[in-house]
Each structure stands twice: as structure tokens, then as C-alpha cells.
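S.,

Sequence below, as promised.
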Amino acid sequence: MQRLILARLFAALLLTLGACQSLPAAREDRLPVTVALADGSAERQAMNARVWDAATGFVERNFYQRDFVRTGWPDQVAAARAEAIAQPDEAGFYRALNAVLGQLDDRHTAATPPALNLRAQERRLQATPRFGLAFAAAPGGEGEAVYVTRVVSGSAAADAGVQPGWRLVSVDEAPYRPASTVFFTDAVSTGCGDATSDAGPFYCPADQTVYLDLGFFDQLRRDFGAQGGAFAETYVIAHEYGHHVQHLLGYDQLVGRDRSGPASGSVKLELQADCLAGVWARNAVATGFVAAITQADIEDGLDAASVIGDDRIQQSMRGRVNPEAFTHGTSAQRQRWLTTGYQKGTGNACNTWEARSL
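The prediction came back faster than expected:
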């Protein structure tokens, strides 16, 4: 029986990272130099202007889609600019910046003041490093490529000599291809066939793409009573990218025709992806990909895991529970494996295939 091991994946990465310096890299072993600006000074207003233009420009280029957000957001940015730049202190400026970012109605689009980022980095430096790698996708010589952006001092990656800027070449000797992402509403055509929004978010191994239904999270709150929250959404998305990791390592092949039942291959695959989502969350904080995950965030994620359990969905839609029809696991199981991944922070903890109980 194969054993899932992201430690094995990590060892493979160490052997198959191509040395190159294509991306600028952050230093995770030291805090950045801070600059104190007097409140109400010309220097403060000049900094406000630079940050405003950089932040709103980045969001407009990368996240604003006129087809989905019909608010005339660039016009709102222009109208609010002068008042925001005139704010005398950092706190007031970031309130103004987040007010205009909030017009996008996207919980993931927000700006964090440098003081909060600095405290988060202090916590990361004090934390015990794990693998110590952070990756990012960027255009490469043959399309999109994945590069190491950070290496945490004292981590396994640093001890192995991994350098920021190295490119990921293969996983377990198989060429590595980052999962593509497609957002859709109503219906979408995929390498696995046509799908509607009834399918929710899903991963298609045939084209190695994650498909995200834009209305799914509203449906979770409306139809299933989920609390919502940014981390709840992040957990669902990380679960789908967990399927990409499983596909690269061959774990989806273990399912075969064992596609339903309380201990079926399908359930084991889905619970493993829940666990990998927890692993991602733990290491996203350790490597600086996200500033912090609070207990309230964790509770939102556990709530989302609960409402999409097979037993809860069956009870809600059919009025009864049939374990032989399970494909994803119960609410309690999904919460357990998400928690396991987050607490352990390593893929070694996610071997649902050999677990004594699910």
C-alpha cells in the first residue's frame, strides 16, 4: 500500500528544484527595516499616495473583473483617492484603503497595516519552522512555473540548501505542473466533461484544473446554514488543490471502483484532501503566505467542514442518512481530518488509506 507522504514529496522537491534566480526573494530570517513617519507630515502623505496607487492598481489588474463586479470600482478608487492620501496617520489611511477595497465585496481583498504585518513576522520567526518553503506561480519559459519565494532559516529546506528563486521541476520524478484555476457561474466545460454549478467547486484530474463556482459559498450560507468567513472559503479551495497533490502522487488511482460507502476509497480520498487543506493552512502561516489564522477562522473552517458532511447533507435533503451512499465522509470525520492536518502540519498525518478508523 502506498503511503502518502508530503515529506516524501518534499524530499523529491529537494532533488528536483532547478537553481535559478528568476524571482525576488524575501528574507524570512530577519525582520524588515521599518521607517517611522510623523503623523500629518508631507512624508506621510507621500507614502499614502504610493501605497494607495500600488495597492489599488494591483487589485484592479489582478482581481477586478468588470463582468462580475458592476460597481464602477475604478471610479470609486479615483473619487476616494484625495481624501485617503490626506489622512494624517497610518490607521486612518488603511481604514480608507480598506473601505474602497471592501466595495468589491470580496473578503480576500484587504490591506494590512505594516505594524500588523511586522507583528505577524515576529511570531513566525519565533515559531518552530517545519519544511520552511513558500512557493509562488509565475510566468516561466514554458508557460506558468512554480518558484521558491521564501526559505525559513533553520528549517529542513534551509538545512538542505534550498535557495529562494529555485524552480520546481518535478514531483517524485514526474514533471510538475501547477493546477490551473477556472472561475465559473452556472455551467462550465472541463476535461472531465460538462458541469453545472450543482457540482460546486471541484478538481478535474484530466486537465489538472480546479474549477470554482462563484455562487457556491453563498449557497453554503443560504441552503446549509454555514457561518461563512474567509477561512471557511479558503478551506474549501485548499481542499480542491489537495486533490491536485493527490493526483500528482497517484492517490486518486487507489479509489478504483470503490466510490461509495462509509470506508470507501472515495471517502478516504476526500478526507485526505481535508487533511491536506489543514496542512496547507498551518504552513501558510509558518511560511508567511498568510499573516495569521485566528481561532475564529478555525471555527469557521470547521463549521464549513461540518455542513458539507455526507450525513448532514443527506439528512437535510432526504430526511434520512444512508452510510452506503457516503462519498465524502461525515461531518465529524471531515472536521477531524481538517483539524489533524492543521495541528500536525505535515502530510505524514494524512494517511487515511491506512488509518485504523476514519
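The longest helix spans residues 265-286.

Coffee later?
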